[in-house]
Every structure is written in structure tokens, then in C-alpha cells.
Amino acid sequence: MNKFSLAVHGGAGTILKSAMTPAKEKLYRQALADALAAGYRVLAGNGSSVDAVVAAVLILENNSLFNAGKGSVFTNEGTHEMDAAVMCGKTLKAGAVANVTRVKNPILLAESVMNKTQHVFLAGKGAELLAEEFNLEMEKPDYFFDTLRHQQWLAAREAQTVSLDHKDIVTEKKFGTVGAVAMDSSGNLAAATSTGGMTNKRYNRIGDTPVIGSGTYANNNTCAVSCTGHGEYFLRAVAAYDISCLMEYKNLSLQDSCRIVVNEKLVKLGGEGGVIAVDGRGNIELVFNSDGMYRGWIRQNEEQNIAIYK
Amino acid sequence: MNKFSLAVHGGAGTILKSAMTPAKEKLYRQALADALAAGYRVLAGNGSSVDAVVAAVLILENNSLFNAGKGSVFTNEGTHEMDAAVMCGKTLKAGAVANVTRVKNPILLAESVMNKTQHVFLAGKGAELLAEEFNLEMEKPDYFFDTLRHQQWLAAREAQTVSLDHKDIVTEKKFGTVGAVAMDSSGNLAAATSTGGMTNKRYNRIGDTPVIGSGTYANNNTCAVSCTGHGEYFLRAVAAYDISCLMEYKNLSLQDSCRIVVNEKLVKLGGEGGVIAVDGRGNIELVFNSDGMYRGWIRQNEEQNIAIYK
Questions:
Q1: What does the alpha-carbon distance between residue B221 and residue B31 come to, in Å, rounded to a whole number?
Q2: Which helix (H) or strand (E) holds B180?
């Protein structure tokens, strides 16, 4: 039996202590703790890492603080478009969805794509049709409505900007994504990521979140990775799989691999954000090149850790 | 000045000489020769590798023999959904589109996404809206109608199968994708891929073609790769970037890297298909684990090569 481990994130970016109130910070910390607790329960019951990361992401999708699920930002058309992915490191099976608008929990749809179909990646109306066939919970637009998000969108639309974040001040950068990585007691790895994308986004833009290898990747031989950041750069860098390859082909540690990708390669490209990752020994890394990243991590029978700033 | 090189493919799969007529084979060979000629003209005029691979793919998209552009297969709903991607190895910039239904040349839209937007990956109606804004040629469904494809679809629908190919006999497997890779006289690499997806596909399924790192990847430090095959396996394998990583991190040759991914890793996963690739020295590889792959390649001032079978 291995000593299981779990990490979660709620997005990275310009998260400044000066702009945070104690009350708000408490809410964020509680949400991350809740997500860790949900994943921990699964792992402590000898559940799989896939079930654990899905359980953790589900909690974050249902919390309007984060740009995923319920808290998803508004598109240019005033709608919500969500992406999600999950990957199992044991089987290398994966499921991903993009541009779904009515699915309450996109991560559950991604999991169904992985477990119940011959496909990996589905999008838009087709993905939603499948969600209905699988009897997943669907929501009307008002479920995703949030006053703060709506104000952000109106401000972004007025400024004609595309905001990647769910920040009060649109000029600041924060990359709203949630994710989880885990190693279970059998030593199996998994990763899951979910997002509402960019505020005011157009053209059915897809970021790195649902792209296997870029925003989400898991492989028992190396690591499980969930990314958050300016998606276009993570796509061009194939960021998650790059971390895996540095471990597999250069025999680097999880720590060195994460740092090379996040602090060197992504910085060189101009890509802001971060990753959470776990390897086959249960080592956990939480690396970001932005001011902060909402994050939490825990190992079996150890204390929970929650952090926001550098 | 480097000696430029170029390769193209028109899909891989169960392509048996016994099922081919001399007249049909001639048409395929001519189409591949035309695509090579179009790319060669660009490279011979000191054009960029990006322009060359787009020019080559354009020819294949406009030929109804191949499952891309005009020759795209039918979805379950009797429509056409196309995916395409292009990547520049010098800048690591990339553009990709998925699930477009009316764009005459999806590869041109992918190129516009790369060159004229801040995004990498757009889908569906949003991507088509952008195509209209860029004044790209749009077509009505009848442009994509083809009697053979329609018969294949009716047969597939009757058999309730999802066919990945554009083969006369639905039980045979052929992976309809077109692609090109090139190194130009400045030593810059590029890759482009385009597809109509799987016959009778549902749920807005996306394969590896438009996924940077899986179906398409280019990096001047290593190689440019365009894949064709059972997309789900290429997605799970992050196949194109894996070839690049084997070169970059293990110092393997292009040949060894392609063979490990196509003949070992993909075979182990169960993924049928192939890749074309070129490295920074102008070496060309065309590797497949299926019975055949429509392919052609040429180096500056050398003879054109066209092949179909093993």
C-alpha cells in the first residue's frame, strides 16, 4: 500500500494580498479545504485516484468563487462555455469536453466520455446531447448567473478586452481554472481540470484545460498534472506532457520538471500560470510563475495545507 | 541556405493493393504529386515552411479523394464536420479549428487563427464566424456532397458503426486525414493537418488532428510532425509531441523517434495509423503501422517520391 496524496488548485494569476479581504480569503481557503476533504475521503476509502480528482473538482465546480461550473465567466455573447478533462494514469484513458453550456458539472461529463465511450474529446451540442443520454444534471443559464461575474463581463465588454480571469479588476490577470491531481493507495495517478474559460471570450475559443497533454495529463510511469494559466501558451508548450517527458526521458525529478516547464519554458514563451502535479512516489509539486495560485495539498495521515500567495 | 524538404500524406489504414484499381491508384498518385508540387513551388521561391505546408494541404482538401475539405465524410446527422491545425516551428505559434461545417478550406482558417488572433484553438460556430470575418470562402453542404461518401455513410449508419475512414468497404479501416510537413531554405519547420473525421461520427467528436502536440506539432529544435490514424489513441499518446521529446530529451534521431512512437508505443496502446515528419537537417520520415499510407516526399532538386503500400 502506498501513502496516497492529493493536490488541488483554483486558478493562478495576479492574486495580491493587498486586494484580498480576510473574509474573502477565508471563503477561498474553506473551498479549497472542502475540495481536499472530498478527494481525501475517496482515497482514504481505498477509492481510485480518478474518483478522488473528480470528487475534488466537483466541489470547486459547484462553488461560485471559481471560474468553472457554477462560477463560470461570461462569454462575449453573455453565455457560459465550459471545458473539462480527466485522465487515468494507469490506463492512459482520457475524457474531455469543450464548449458545453448547460452541463452542471463538466468534469462528470468528461469522466463519462472516458469511461463510457470510445472517444476522448467531444464538444458543444454533441457533448451536451451525450450528457443528456447519460442523465447528467443539466442547468438553465440562470444557474450560472453571478452578479460579480456579470459586472466583470460588462466591464470587459466595455473595455473590449478578453479577460482570462475572474478578478474584480479586469486589468489584473487571473486564470480561472480548477483542477486536482492524486496518487491513490494502489499507486495509480490521475488528473482532472475544469474551467469556464476567458471572460468575454469569443469564437468558441478552447484553451488548454480540455486538451490532453497541455492542460491535463496523467501517466503512472511519470506524473499527473493539472495546469492553470494563459491557455494559449500552455497549448503551444504542450505543458503537461512536457513535464511527463522530462521525467521519463531525462530522468528528472517531478520538482525539476515542473520548474523547467513553468519557470523557464513558459516564461520564455510569455505564458503566465502554474501547475499542480504528483508523481508515482506521492511527491507533490505546486509551481507557478504568477503572483499567486489558489492551492491545497495533503498526504495520507498528514495535515492539510492551503496557500494562495507566493 | 538549407536544402529544403517536404512530405505529404493522405491518410493511413487498410489500403490493400488487391482492392485498388490501376485507374484509382493513378488518381491518388496524381493528387499526392499535385500537393507536393504546390508545396515545392513555395519552397523553391524561398517561401516559408508554413506557406508550403498550407499550400500542400490546400490541394488535398480540394480533392474529393481524401477525407478533408471537399472530400469530408458524413457525420451521423448527415452533415460534415472538419478539423485542421497548423504550427510554425520557428515561433511555436499554432492555429487550430474543430467542428467547422461550412469553411471550404479549414487549413486556411487554422492559419488565420495562428497569424491574426491571440488564440490557438477555436471551434464550431465561433470558428465559422471568424472565417466569415476573415472573408474566407464558405460553402453550402452540397459542395461537400459526394456519392461514394454518402453510400459509405448510409452503410455505416445501417451497420451502426462509426467508421474512421473513407473506404469502400466499411469494415476495413482507413484513417482519412491529410497533412504536410516541411523544412524551408531558412531551416524553419512547419506542420499542417486537416480532416473530415470519422464516417457516421456523433457528439461533435474531435480527434487528434486539431490538437497541438497530438496530431500536429512543429519545433525548429526538433521536428515537424503530422499524424493520421485512429485519433483517440494519438490523443492519449500525445503522439506528435512525443516524437519531438524523444529527439530533444533523449537525443534520438528522427527515424528512431518516429519508430518508437508509431511502431512501439501506439501499437501497445492499440492505435493504428502513421506519421510524416521532417527534422532540422531536412531528414524525412514516413512511418506507419497500418497496411498502407498515402504519402509523398521530395527534397530540393531531387525526384518526387510517391507511395501507398508498405
A1: 31
A2: strand B178-183
Mean pLDDT, chain B, integer: 93
Q: How far apart are CA B270 and CA A177, in angstroms?
A: 32
In a mutagenesis test of the A interface, which of B82, B120, B162, B209 is the best target, namely the one with the most A β-carbons within 10 Å?
Answer: B120
Domain ranges of chain B: 5-309
The answer to whether ipTM exceeds 0.90 is yes
A168: confidence class by pLDDT, cuts 50, 70, 90 = very low
CA distance B15 to A142: 52
- The pLDDT, as a whole number, for residue B198 is 86
Assess whether A147 carries a catalytic annotation.
Answer: no
Contact residues on chain B for A211, CB-CB shorter than 8 A: 121, 211-213
For residue A121, the cross-strand partners are: A96, B206
pLDDT, position A174: 64
Segment B254-303, tens digit of pLDDT: 999 999 999 999 999 999 999 999 999 999 999 999 999 999 999 999 99
Fold of A5-309: Glutamine Phosphoribosylpyrophosphate, subunit 1, domain 1 (3.60.20)
pTM to 2 decimals? 0.95
Top-confidence residue, B66 or A172: B66
Residue with cell 496524496: A5
Using DSSP's 3-state secondary structure scheme, residue B193 falls into strand
Report whether A1 contacts A288 (CB < 8 A).
no
Query: What is the 8-class DSSP label of residue A304?
Result: -
Rounded CA separation A192/A188 (Å): 14
Q: Mean of the pLDDT values across residues A115-128?
A: 96
Q: Which residues of B touch chain A, with CB atoms under 8 Å apart?
A: 92-94, 98-99, 117-127, 129-130, 162, 202-207, 211-214, 217, 231-232, 235-238, 241-242, 245-246, 249-250, 269
Which letter does DSSP use for residue B73 in this model?
P
Q: What are the residues facing A123 on neighbouring strands?
A: A98
Which grid cell is A270? 510569455
Q: Which residue has the cell 484499381?
A: B21
* Dihedral angle over CA of B272, B57, B241, A290, nearest 10: -140
Strands B82-88 and A205-206: unpaired
Give pLDDT, residue A1.
Answer: 73
User: Which pLDDT score is estimated for B164?
Assistant: 52
